[in-house]
Amino acid sequence: MEKETGQDALKVSRRSFLGWAAGLMGAAIAAILGGSGFGYFISPAFKKREEDWVNLGRVDQIRLGVPTKAEFTVRKRDAWMTTERRSSAWILTSNGKDFTVFDPKCTHLGCPYRWDEATKKFLCPCHAAVFDVDGSVVKGPPPRPLDRYPVKVSSGRILILPLNEQRKT
Amino acid sequence: MRAWTWINERTGAGKIWEALFARKIPEAKGWVAWLYTLGSASLFVFTIQAVTGALLAMNYVPSPDHAHDSIRFIESQVFLGSFIRGLHHWGATFMVVLVALHMLRVYFMAAYKYPREATWLVGVVLFLLVMGFSFTGYLLPWDQKAYWATMVGANIAGQAPALGSYLAKILKGGEDLGAATLARFYSLHVLVLPMTIAVAILAHLFLVVWHGISEPPLKESNKGD
User: Fold this and answer.
1) B52·A37 Cβ contact <8 A
2) Among B48, B173, B211, B219, whose CB has the most other CB atoms within 10 angstroms?
């Protein structure tokens, strides 16, 4: 056995050097491959929801003060598929600039409600719910006012985001 | 250390490590030594294929109306999707090359001789399984190249005497190359072949460790001294 003095103590044997080198290279390869695969696997967690704004038509076609029902088609991208769904919404404006768009389903159990011109109220046929023109509950079982879609006006057109999930009150 | 002792006493992990990684191997010098890495390289690429394949299967649909779209989705929408698919694509080619080179090395070094005939036979099965993976995987992108390559393959099977037309129909899952063929090839590619190759790989590795690695053949001039 060699006596360990100064320089010899720092000496690394060929075997342990190669062992470390192989281990490090292996770890690097495993980290790159494993990291890529892991990233691929967990990437859905960080994918942003696609914002598909739907065009509801021209701003000047909406009568002031009276809720207007708009029919439209939602094209939804579902991974590699595109699905189409017919839907509708109630558009309301008092000045032709600021718009409120209501989800067409009653917040009680999802029945489609209608606008009653005589009473100036939204009436739901299922459980006799009544909503005011601003969406607030006047009468009946609904737990919250009418749901609103995010809305914006762009180059004279009304665009909304018809989200499916129920928003919390 | 106490954790290691606990595990080792209950699993024999140390003995397993010694048998697999600290075993004696023949001394080989120069480029010849590199030929002994081809088996491990094949195993490494196989591992990559297994992992990337499992990941790709998460976003792939083996149906004529979705196969190509789902692959386009992987390529353009999924994070690192084209990288993972690239690994699987090139890994498939490398796999065939490495396995073939490994087979040539064993052949030309006469390493298949007594007592390693069983290792060689299992190796031949592994080679055929890799060919099966290549053939079935080639159809899955469902593009023109995939379709016509498989058509040629099915027609070749159809040329076999007497049983040819039956073989072709079994391969295609019907009269024509279509939805049933794609689903059939997918099942073979991700279920049947992987289960079979896992068993064959374990048997092959066991035999390699059991017999030890054969010496490189001596040069004529070195013989006898």
Assistant:
1) yes
2) B48
Return d(Cα A85, Cα A72) in angstroms, integer. Answer: 9
Tokens describing residue B190: 């991700």
What does the pLDDT look like over A63-110, one tens digit per residue? 888 888 888 888 888 889 988 888 888 988 888 778 888 988 888 898
Q: What is the CATH code for A54-160?
A: 2.102.10.10
The number of CA neighbours under 13 Å toward the Cβ of B79 is: 14
Q: List, in sequence order, every residue forming a beta bridge with A102; answer none if it has no partner.
A: A90, A148
Q: Check CB contact under 8 Å for A80 and B79.
A: no
Residue A117 CB neighbours (<10 A): 9
Q: Return the residue of A nearest to B84 by Cα.
A: A37
The domains of chain A are located at 6-45, 54-160
Judged against a pLDDT cut of 70, whether residue A4 lies above it is answered with no
pLDDT for the residue A108: 86
| pLDDT, tens only, B131-156 | 999 999 999 999 999 999 999 999 99
Round to whole Å and give the CA distance between A71 and A57: 10
Element (H, E) at A69: strand A68-78
Q: Where does the pLDDT of residue A169 fall: very low under 50, low under 70, confident under 90, or very high at 90 and above?
A: very low
Q: Are the beta carbons of B80 and A81 separated by less than 8 Å?
A: no
Q: Omega into B115 within 30° of 0, i.e. cis?
A: yes
ipTM of the complex: 0.87
**Rounded Cα distance, A122 and A137, in Å:** 9
The residues spanned by each domain of chain B are 31-211
Structure token digits, residue A145: 């006012």
Chain B residues with CB under 8 Å of A46 CB are 79
List the Cα angle A106/A108/A110 in 5-degree steps. 50
Q: What is the mean pLDDT of residues B33-59?
A: 96
Which CATH number, 3.20.20.150, 1.10.10.60, 3.50.50.60, 1.20.810.10, labels domain B31-211?
A: 1.20.810.10
